[in-house]
Every structure is written in structure tokens, then in C-alpha cells.
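Minutes, project check-in
Item: structure for the 254-residue chain
Input as provided by the requester:
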Amino acid sequence: MSPAVHSQPEADWPPPVEILNESGASDIVLICEHASNHIPASFERLGLAPSELQRHIAWDIGAAEVARELSRQLDAICFLGTYSRLIIDLNRPLDSTTSIPVRSESTDVPGNIGIAPEDRDRRVSLIFNPFQDHVARHLDARTSQGRKTRLVAIHSFTPVFLGARRPWHAGVLFNRSREFAQNLIQGLGREAGLIVGANVPYVIDRQEDYAVPVHGEDRGLPAILIEIRQDLISPDVLEGHSLWATRLARALRS
């Protein structure tokens, strides 16, 4: 499937990154790679039913809303992805088998099966590379200016995965940035009843993660990934995203 990019309306092929608060004064740099479930019409929904694109397989439900509000509260720059991770995953190395997934959770993705090399290259050049380049240029500029920087990626996870229930309200994922992560976990843990775990429900793995190892650790920056359970921040939960943004802002400031 090779979409005719230039024949599509401009709105169907938005810029691959949305940047909020570009001149933000905070030392925090926010990244939300799975902010959107948008798939251009020429991909024909990758062969999936419309309802499938509302699920976690297509995006991180609620993550964008948390990231936007957190950007506002912290006065922090934020980079948001504008395409579904089913087209290409911005938090996967290009050589990962899940970079362009042929199966997500228990769902096959027909439009990603057996794609031509030129289709893969098009997704990389139009979406993946520009997003990463914007983040890299900003981080490099901060370094050259001597600005303190902490990298925080915002994600969400499903309450149940392949039949297994996940008890955590949130998880803080880290590799080298143990102190940064533990301080955040302790800050969130001051609120009674919250279950916040370290390296749950996933772990940072250079083979399967991009932002923390490449943008963060390779630059020697403190870098963590925050996972929030989707049922706590979905659009169905009144002010859920605002509550979590406030929690995170308070903990990150401390």
C-alpha cells in the first residue's frame, strides 16, 4: 500500500510534530509520541474497523490531554506526535519489529503486512525522522546554551492486557535515571491510595524504546517515561487528565 501523499488534503497529512510552549522556561522537556490516532485516508485504516482505531493499539488514550495540561502548568515545551503509532511508532527504533507493527496486542494490522520498502521509507522520511529531528535540535540547543534539562515522556496503558489486570494507577519507567524516577514516585506516593510502581507495566529497553535511551541517555540527560492507566485519564473521566497533570506537576517541581 503506497499512499499518494501529495494528492491528499493538507489536513490529512499534518506536520508530524505539534510543538507546544516552544519558549517554555521549565527544565522539563515533555514528549508524547502516541498522542494521536490519525491515519491518512489513503491508508484505508490499514484494513482495520473504525472501532479498532479508538483502542490503545492506535494511540495512548488520554496521554495528549495530560501532556498539554502539564506543559501549561510547568511552562514546559512539549512535542506531540500527530499520527497513529500503527503507521509508525515514534518510540521504537527503526529496526524494532514493532516499529511498523503487523500485530498489536491480539489484533492483526493487515495494512502493515508485507509492505514495500518504499512505503516503509516514506513513513520514516515523512513522519519518524522529522519528529525526532525536532526533538534532537531542541535538546542540542539547550545543551549548547547550558540549560538544565530533564526529559519526561508521557504515555498511558490499558487496565487489562491480554486478560491480565494491572493494579497500578501509574508507573515510572527508567534505566539510568534512578534518582529522578524514585523522587517522582515518592512525590506521587504522598497521595493516599495511589499505587505507583517502578518500571511497570513495562521496562526501558534500547531495543524497544527510543526517547529515553536516544534523546535522553545518549545526551547524558535525566530521562524517564511516565505511564498512566487509561481509565483514569480517558475523555469519559471528568477532569481526569487535569487531576493527573496537577499531580505530576507538583511531584516534578519537588
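Outcome recorded: Residues 1-7 have pLDDT under 50 and may be disordered.
No further action items on this chain.
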